[in-house]
Amino acid sequence: MDYISEAVEELSGYTPADFIERRVTFADLIHPADRAQVSRNILYAVANNEPFDIEYRIYHADGTRRWVLEHGRPVYGEDGLVRTSTASSSTSRARGWRKRRSAPARSGFATSPSTRPT
After folding, report:
1. What CATH number does residue 74 fall under?
2. Range of the domain at 76
3. CA–CA distance, 7 with 83 (Å, rounded to integer)
4. 4 secondary structure, DSSP code
5. Over the chain, what is the mean pLDDT?
6. What is the pLDDT of residues 3-18, one digit of tens each?
7. Among residues 80, 3, 87, which one has the least CA distance to residue 47?
8. 9, 20 contact by CB (below 8 A)
9. pLDDT at 116
10. Do the domain assignments include residue 3?
11. Domain count, the chain
């Protein structure tokens, strides 16, 4: 990882340097029950060069659990390998997204529980 936004500190409690210098990885913070689904979704997006939207829980450095809604897309280098993933995350948006997804489907909006951790 070459760059990570300063906003990661508010979300995770860890500084960008903690991630860049590999003292912590974002995968380390993901709730164990959500790890497999997050991995599957990202691997699928990378394999198919598609954007992804993933909702999952992380543990903040202070020990609290936080919901994250991550939007991202793989970015490939000249050699075809993924060099970076652009993403944005928000605990408050995740809360709203969960609420909308749990509401009854209407106006063509359908929920997809298979992509949402329980």
Report:
1. 3.30.450.20
2. 30-103
3. 20
4. -
5. 78
6. 788 888 988 999 999 9
7. 80
8. no
9. 39
10. no
11. 1
Pairing of strands 52-59, 82-90: unpaired
Which of residues 117 and 23 earns the better pLDDT score? 23
| 115, part of any domain | no
Distance CA 41, CA 72 (A): 11
| Nearest to 44, CA basis, from 10, 14, 2, 74 | 74
Q: Cα dist. 94→27, 51, 80, 84 in Å?
A: 18, 17, 32, 23
H or E element in which residue 57 lies:
strand 52-59
The answer to whether position 117 is within a domain reads no
39 domain-assigned:
yes
Strand partners, 52: 72
Instruction: Please tell me which residue, 54 or 99, carries the higher pLDDT value.
Output: 54
